[in-house]
Design goal:
Elements: E1 2-7, H1 12-23, E2 27-33, H2 42-46, E3 55-56, H3 59-66, E4 70-73, H4 80-89, E5 93-96, H5 103-115, E6 119-122, H6 128-140, E7 146-153, H7 163-179, E8 198-200, E9 203-209, E10 215-223, E11 226-234, H8 241-250, E12 256-259
Parallel strand pairs: 1-2, 1-4, 2-3, 4-5, 5-6, 6-12, 7-9
Antiparallel strand pairs: 7-10, 8-9, 10-11
Helix pairs in contact: 1-8, 4-5, 6-7
The structure holds NADP nicotinamide-adenine-dinucleotide phosphate.
NADP nicotinamide-adenine-dinucleotide phosphate binds at residues 8, 10-14, 34-37, 74-77, 79, 97-99, 123-126, 157, 215, 240.
Pathway: Amino-acid biosynthesis; L-lysine biosynthesis via DAP pathway; (S)-tetrahydrodipicolinate from L-aspartate: step 4/4
Main location: cytoplasm
Function: Catalyzes the conversion of 4-hydroxy-tetrahydrodipicolinate (HTPA) to tetrahydrodipicolinate.
Amino acid sequence: MLRVLVNGADGRMGSQVVKAVFEDPELEVAGGISITHVGEDVGDIAGVGHLGLTIRDDLGAALDDIKPDVVVDFTTPKVIFNNAKTCIEHGVNMVVGTTGLTAEQRHELHALALEKKTSIFIAPNFSIGAVLMMKLSTEVAPYLPDVEIIELHHNNKLDAPSGTAIMTADKIDAARKEAGVQPAPDKTHESLDGARGASVDGIPIHSVRLPGYIAHQQVLFGGYGELLTIRHDSMDRKSFMPGVVLAVKKVSSRPGLTFGLENYL
Ligand code: NAP
């Protein structure tokens, strides 16, 4: 049995994680952390029934008391770097779904995790379909190097562009460079600020935030007289849970920091 502490246990993603861990015979909910529901029961908040585990608000103290095998973190971009450092310092393996960590921060966490003989896994997207969307995009990019990304999310998302869109752009850029191909230069001369989106590795990313969406992305490739669009839609946050459970079970297998669910597939 792996004992799992969920950070952000009352959030949209965290409460699904509590449920997924509760329902998996090889995993056990060890505790939950949030800011607003301190003192309430982790199971009651996640909708799985009373578990006799109280929600706490101090990650470091909870790690000292509960000594979980794995922490799963779905909190906010503002606190994730410190959360990760706290887990690694305590020698506890971590699975991170929270977006917003920079490449430099990931590099620092990798070194710290190696030093402390701890494992940390980060995935900007835990859905299998999204991982395949990125893989297919890297296969198309050498043949159709002109590409733009539209990502669409619910209006409570705090960061833009999404971590998935940034990761997709990074992978497409690497695939184009490896193939020695370049996109056509952008000929736009005049535009309103933001009209061409954010540029990541020279790839425009357009972020839409509206109620009704969960997590969606379209990767648009343009060629002479043809277009190819790869599209992925997460219709329910449950779509992320098989990936989260897989990562919880596999995180200890790789020392240091591992980035991207494709490493476990
Ligand atoms: P959410 O519903 O707003 O939940 C955020 C959670 O973080 C809540 O439990 C909240 O507690 C807690 N929190 C807020 N401030 C905190 C702080 N200072 N310290 C510790 N905990 C704090 O957000 P969500 O939709 O679940 O998303 C969470 C993260 O996961 C976001 O970064 C999002 O982009 C990412 N995400 C990743 C994936 C993926 O596949 N990797 C998929 C979806 C979302 P209170 O409620 O008590 O304030």
